[in-house]
């Protein structure tokens, strides 16, 4: 089964085989970190630099049968945001037409790919800081300024994506991860499984996650980059109150709310939130996609670029609502941070040296990498 526009590895020539490298040549694949519908994520340790750790997303070709184009698309998108101008993959041929690969500090990067007869392997940055909402709940203090700082990073990364012709199409809190456990860690955007490189400028496929999907997608209209801005608006809303702007157990009712843009700033939860924050959210969650802010316009809003965000501590209200409304659900990933911590300690003892910046992690009970089991349309 050819992937990435390449020959089936089972039909490689002798020359191809000599040129190809297997994942085992470069990495020790270790403990399980998470599982998805078609894949699993494991810890990968570099054989050349044993103090460096990565995440490897392992995709089963049999499970993926019929969905190869989706994987091919995800890899093409990820390659646009990788550090190197030219990286080889190890499936027997070189990509000579990929062009310059681009990078952004808030996008989880694909480092290289491998392929064998039964599986595809994506070597990714190991992102160890945990999910967005988990970190907010753990904080002792949390303000509008904190929320604005988070959204500024997301807007900057998505604006960069849009400049490169990429629409994420599935922005949601589960796909916003902290790079490390440091208090000042940056936020990272992950999971590009539904992302699309714009060719004609508009798309029509209905996809996304209920609750975050834009009205024009539900209305089955052609859509573009504005769908990501809507999703950022929904995330911004949740960051300031702890509950979603749209909710109903019945999907039809939920979608009806979204199509009409029916949301409120309920008392008492929004009483202490600034008018600037509310205006910002209204601009991002405008039902008319043509009137909706772009990422660039959102970055210039006073709540993001100025001093309009309040410094009042809203942690108590927001964390209580987050715990109530976003408890771990049955479809969400189960990540095993302790396995990574144990591996890091073993490596440190064996080498007698410290762990590299890319591999740092405190002994906490959450680790997240760029793959989530999404409740998708």
The CATH superfamily of the largest domain is identified as: Transferase(Phosphotransferase) domain 1
Question: What name does the CATH topology of the largest domain carry?
Answer: Transferase(Phosphotransferase), domain 1
Structural category: alpha+beta
Distance between the termini: 27 Å
Q: How much is the radius of gyration in Å?
A: 21 Å
Quick check: average pLDDT?
A: 76
- Please provide the ordered H/E string of secondary-structure elements: HHEEEHHEEHHEEEEHHHHHHHH
Strand order of the largest sheet: 1-2-3-5-4
Task: Label the overall shape.
Answer: globular
CATH level 1 class label of the largest domain: Mainly Alpha
Overall tally of structural domains: 2
For the biggest sheet, the summary is:
5 strands, antiparallel
Family: Belongs to the protein kinase superfamily.
GO molecular function: ATP binding; protein serine/threonine kinase activity
Organism: Aphis gossypii (Cotton aphid)
Keywords: ATP-binding, Kinase, Nucleotide-binding, Serine/threonine-protein kinase, Transferase
